[in-house]
């Protein structure tokens, strides 16, 4: 079905858990599984900074928490600034080994937080910024974001007027900042996701990881279909898995043996139920065009 980068051949998923049971995520939530896997790759010491988003409430109500690493809540637009300041504070205290990670949704990344993120990237801060992308403002009622795909239903782009703009290409925006490391990942391929977080942890400077995160309520999907749907996004090149070093070395890390049509992905979700066959053809052309541009830069030999 697909080929993995050779560095996964003998990789085992770490048994250590840095996130406990008892969180309040929805059943089938891609964001909760992504965090669990990411922390396996990051290990300790790690500190998380989270703005307003689903993950602001997933750990549970204070003083109880499902997290076994420091967890800082911050304002919606400030993730990039807070991780920069927190890293400086740890450095001042002689705690250089603490990995500071910003963990924000697409609304807090594509829209409200992009200015602070861009500033941190320009300064090449020694931090990791993660966008867990569920393609809408899910925590406040499924409103459209810059990460919402073309044609998708949300509460602010209803069926009679679905989103008419293409999804903002945040990956290309971050590549343009020429930071040391950029990667895409999804919990449907846990070895790939964990390996990318391990690699990011081992590097210095600004690292950006973009995670596709299924949201059953917002995507209108069965809770037991999240992994399959995220996998379809990869196999159809809607969300290709790759990494970029210094905006120069492009490497596809999961290569489908046979590319799936986008129709299978779109028809699996209620948010796209209203699309006509002509709409789907438009979507397919957009996906194909974007991937062809990206493919030209890939080193197809896994190293």
Name its key features.
303 residues; alpha/beta; Rossmann fold; 9-stranded mixed β-sheet; 10 helices
Task: Please characterize this protein's 3D structure.
It is a single chain. The chain is of the alpha/beta class. It has helices spanning 30-42, 79-92, 106-111, 114-122, 170-176, 190-202, 216-219, 226-235, 262-266, 277-295; strands at 2-4, 46-50, 71-73, 99-105, 128-133, 181-186, 207-212, 241-245, 249-256. A nine-stranded mixed beta sheet has the order 1-9-8-6-7-5-4-2-3, with helices on both faces. A hairpin with a 3-residue loop joins strand 8 (241-245) and strand 9 (249-256). The model has no long low-confidence stretch (mean pLDDT 94).
What is the compact description of this entry?
By secondary structure, the chain is of the alpha/beta class. The protein is built from 10 helices and 9 strands.
CATH superfamily descriptor: Thiamin diphosphate (ThDP)-binding fold, Pyr/PP domains
Distance between the termini: 20 Å
Oligomer: single chain
Q: What is the CATH topology assignment?
A: Rossmann fold
Given helix and strand content, the structural type is alpha/beta
Number of domains: 1
Main beta sheet: 9 strands, mixed
Whole-number average pLDDT?
Answer: 94
* Widest beta sheet: strand line-up: 1-9-8-6-7-5-4-2-3
Shape: globular
């Amino acid at each position: 079905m697909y080929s993995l980068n050779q560095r996964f051949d003998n990789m085992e998923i770490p048994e250590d858990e840095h996130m406990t049971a008892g969180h309040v995520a929805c059943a089938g939530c891609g964001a909760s599984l992504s965090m669990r896997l990411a922390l396996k790759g990051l290990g300790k010491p790690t500190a998380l900074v989270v703005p307003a988003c689903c993950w602001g409430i997933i750990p549970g109500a204070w003083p109880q928490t499902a997290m076994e690493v420091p967890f800082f809540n911050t304002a919606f637009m400030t993730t990039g600034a807070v991780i920069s300041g927190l890293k400086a504070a740890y450095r001042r205290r002689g705690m250089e080994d603490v990995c500071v990670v910003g963990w924000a949704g697409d609304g807090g990344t594509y829209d409200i937080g992009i200015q602070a993120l861009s500033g941190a990237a320009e300064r090449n801060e020694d931090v990791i910024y993660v966008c867990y992308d569920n393609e809408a403002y899910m925590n406040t009622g499924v409103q459209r974001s810059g990460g919402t795909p073309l044609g998708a239903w949300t509460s602010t782009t209803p069926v009679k007027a679905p989103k008419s703009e293409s999804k903002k290409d945040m990956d290309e925006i971050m590549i343009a900042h020429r930071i040391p490391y950029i990667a895409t990942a999804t919990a449907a391929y846990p070895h790939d996701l964990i390996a990318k977080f391990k690699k990011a942890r081992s590097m210095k400077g600004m690292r950006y990881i973009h995670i596709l995160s299924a949201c059953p309520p917002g995507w209108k999907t069965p809770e037991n279909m999240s992994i399959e749907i995220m996998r379809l996004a990869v196999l159809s090149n809607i969300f290709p898995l790759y990494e970029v070093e210094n905006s120069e070395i492009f490497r596809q890390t999961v290569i489908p043996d046979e590319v799936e049509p986008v129709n299978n992905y779109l028809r699996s979700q209620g948010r796209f139920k209203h699309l006509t066959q002509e709409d789907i053809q438009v979507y397919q052309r957009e996906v194909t065009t974007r991937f062809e541009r990206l493919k030209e830069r890939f080193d197809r030999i896994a190293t």
